[in-house]
Design goal:
The complex is a heterodimer of chains A (811) and B (242).
Chain A (H helix, E strand, L loop, with lengths): L6 H28 L5 H28 L1 H25 L12 H30 L4 H25 L5 H21 L6 H17 L1 H4 L9 H6 L4 E9 L2 E8 L21 E6 L2 E7 L26 E5 L5 H8 L4 E5 L3 H10 L13 E4 L3 H7 L4 E7 L4 H6 L12 H9 L1 E12 L6 H15 L9 E5 L3 E7 L5 H14 L2 E4 L12 E3 L3 H9 L4 H7 L23 H6 L11 H27 L1 H5 L6 H29 L2 H26 L6 H30 L3 H19 L2 H12 L4 H45 L6
Parallel strand pairs in A: 5-6, 5-8, 6-7, 8-9
Antiparallel strand pairs in A: 1-2, 2-3, 3-4, 9-11, 10-11, 10-12
Chain B lengths: L1 H41 L11 H9 L20 E4 L2 E3 L2 H10 L7 E5 L5 H7 L4 E6 L2 H13 L5 E5 L12 E6 L8 H6 E12 L4 E9 L5 E6 L12
Parallel strand pairs in B: 3-4, 3-6, 4-5, 6-7
Antiparallel strand pairs in B: 1-2, 7-8, 8-9
Amino acid sequence: MSRNLSLAYLITLALISATALAYEVLLMRLFSIIQWHHFAYMIISLALLGYGISGTFLALNKDWLTRHFPVAILSNMVLLAVSLPVCFLVVQQIPFNPAEILWDPAQLGYLFASYITLALPFFFAASIIGLSFYYFKQHVTSIYAADLLGAGIGSIGIIVLLYLFFPENIFTVLILLVSLAAGIFILATISKHETSSWVWASIFSLIIVTACLLLPNVNSLLISPYKSQSQYLTIPTTKIIEQHSSPLGLISVIESKNTPLRNAPGLSIRADVVIPEQLAVFSDADHLSAITQFETNNKISYLDQTTSALPYHLKAMNKVLILGAGTGSDVLQARFHNGRQIDAVEQNPQIIKLIKKNYADFAGDLYSKPNVNLFNKEIRAFISGSDSTYDLVNLSLMDSFGNSSAGLYSMAENYLYTTQAVQQYLQHLTADGYLSLTRWIKLPPRDMPKIMATVIQVLTNNGITKPAQHIMVIRNWQTSTLLVKNSEITAKEIELLKQFCTQRNFDLVYYPGISETETNQFHIMKQPYLFQSISELLSPQSDEFIKNYKFNIQPSTDDKPYFAQFLKWKTLPEMVSLIDSGGLFLLESGYLILIVSLLQAILASVLLIAIPLWLWKKKLVGESKINKQGLSYFFCLGLAFLFVEIAFIQRFILILHHPIFAITTVLCTFLISAGLGSYFSKRLANHSLNRLTIFWPIAALTVLCIAYILGFEWISHVILQQGDISRYVLSVLLIAPLGFCMGMPFPLGLMQLSRTMPEMIPWAWGVNGCASVISAILAVIIAMEFGFSGLITAAVLLYCFSVMLFPTQMR
Amino acid sequence: MIKKSAFLIALLLLFCSTSLAEQDYQQQRDHLVQRIKDNVALNNDYLLSEHIDARVLDVIRFVPRHEFVPQKYRKHAYKNRPLPIGFGQTISQPVIVAIMTDLLQLKQKNHVLEIGTGSGYQAAVLARLVDKVYSIEIVEELFERSSRDLKRLGFDNVATRSGDGYFGWPEQAPFDRIIVTAANSHIPPSLIKQLKPGGRMVLPVGGKFLLQHLVLVIKDVEGNVTTQQLLPVKFVPLTGQH
């Protein structure tokens, strides 16, 4: 039976798809605030889980549901509208604490409960789309187009919404979108046939009123009490005085009347100074930085008592570049030391506005001083597009200590400490200029040995035969600063270095010609680990040392930008054996949470997608045998598609400057281009289908992938120099051809099944769903271990393998 | 008569169950101390001596940790793990409490300043080893709860105060020992000043559930200050010749 598909219904579907995708991105934002950012890929996985479960559910109940089509669609819309905020409210009540996951097995249960609960709205959205495919069988391509177009609009729309509203208030907008979809559906479909339309209209009116009046009062964010903002707010007379939200983050300015903030990381133990009044600024309820009251230079003398002040004592600085200027303490430090021209780079315009406008008086008009030039740009973009040279390029403490020490950011992409980044920083130094890198001290040392290895590798790549002559390192008990020059370090500089350290009880770690006895004097470690590390890294046995070191200190690259990933699998047994005696800190909890997420994705997809299919096998395929080869084809496609998608999301963080922009742009482009590819694949399917039919799209995507692997460094360098609009246009143009090819193998496989063994179609959906749920997380693990190239290579191999698995035989 | 007998039996049962519970807690504490000893014997690299001072272990055997833990976590009170106490704070892992206390090398006559009372457990441990403990807590609710618990359990030589610990406790300064359990971006200069020559200060570095390492600040008799950065476990990151 052929059913008429109206434009109104297509708009309804597009609105539902837009809501689902916006909800996915919104969840990532919300989890970055209430927990930590490492749940982003888990959220992609749980969205796919919702779609996967829905596929199985529809396969088992499609006859009944198509008979009750309008009621089924409207019921799902009601459930979607209600579940959007309710599931999030429920998850906020689950006492999940990622920091406790290694102590308390119950946390695994909480994580799993959160995972399943948040998948529910996706289940309802997917059921609306999936049921439409069954109901309007003759209009599959139109429905697919509406679905993808809606998702594309949703991914752009959520960015706009995140600029306009606080994240928790966006739920109301999403509920209004679902209600609008329902209104269109009722007007176009039901009112002609049913008298119950007023009942549905009343239900949605009630939902709208509740969403507008009640929701803003109950849907406040319950931020983890272990985040630094929550802890700061427990201090009496401390309150949030200003908050701003954007896709880049939630910025909170906090004032404490009786207990002022005193943020002076790495202050010398000999410093006898008073820290001026400060306001705390938290980004996503973490990442503490301070707006310091600036009146006169003598009130900020504490900035001369930190390890990062070293370069200013070696020579007069005419031109200083501060990367990641934030709330301005490094700029203040440069001013204190009479930097003549200070260029400061900060990505977040809201942070800039705080210093330049809202607290300009308090901050002494720091960013409006005649010798301070502020650039609202991402660091790598600025460096790629600038041809200025500086006496000092400074990059200090770009992450908060708590997160750094807990390993919570081990899976975060960081393009600031890669070999390519350091190479660019060095290119922007004057002949005798310094690159200054300051990091928190971690024990056993991890960060600094990795920075040292990176710098030495870059110097060697630049043709410097004696990198040992170009490096100086100092530390105190909390921070460590490394200086590197393109020219050799002079005897005068060494003398000034020693003087600086002696006056502040800072330890010498390295300078050309240092002896071990000079190290480890004031802040004594069991062994002079940092000195030993750099000595080994400068020796011919450097590779051997990196290989044998118990943490991963291999320099990170743009291909594998996981600077904070220090875990080595071979050290894991030793670390695990020390857990009971207080050695838990040795483990990188962020990475381990990723492994736990993968296990739960496997469990959930098998339990909720595969097992139901297996249990009701007879209902679906009767007495027919399961075609394992055909199913393997769809499994491989599920893995490969997400591998490519995740690889591009990670790689485009560099080009588009922030995970949220990368996720939305890459997802949107892949969705639309794959949809077009799917539409085009109909033409290939006019004749009989065989392996050759899918060979061509897979050959084309293989060629594209190889080109990207080989040329990405050059591509990203070129794109980073472009303006904002060009960067986005070029990104879309790069991704779209690949997405177009990737959109073909799946529908071609489905068409083949529909001709030869239609009873296998639900299985194909189910198996593909399982693979996708797992793939979203597995991809991140592969990228961390083998890099972007490794992940793309794995995807290409899977695609090539799928050519052989294409279901050509009749059973 | 029957009523009286029933009442007496109920009272007896109640008494028995309380004393059985106490006995059970004592057994758990003994077991915990044994685990701490075993761990330290395996990982004694951090110590300046071979073993944890027997007095410290005796005190851990004595102080009822479960009394400082919220009701719902009491069953875990004698596990060697940190536990939440509310307000984003934790009660430290027992082995870390033992190590930090041991690093202070306490003498009976010492006056000790604690910054960050938290649950009050660390103050209770200190109170059994020295004459006087001064403890400051900034979170009002934690201050009230820990002060009440310390008083209820008879730790009368602990003086508590609500407020900012950044400037120490000038009225009672100088101190022989200082323990800073609340993290800061730096060691406050005022605390270094309030430490007597020959004094020691300990502070943990890291997150609430993941302590990274311990910093021992030593002020020698001439007033020179150095620190030692100590891992609580035996773990050498460098292999081969090192």
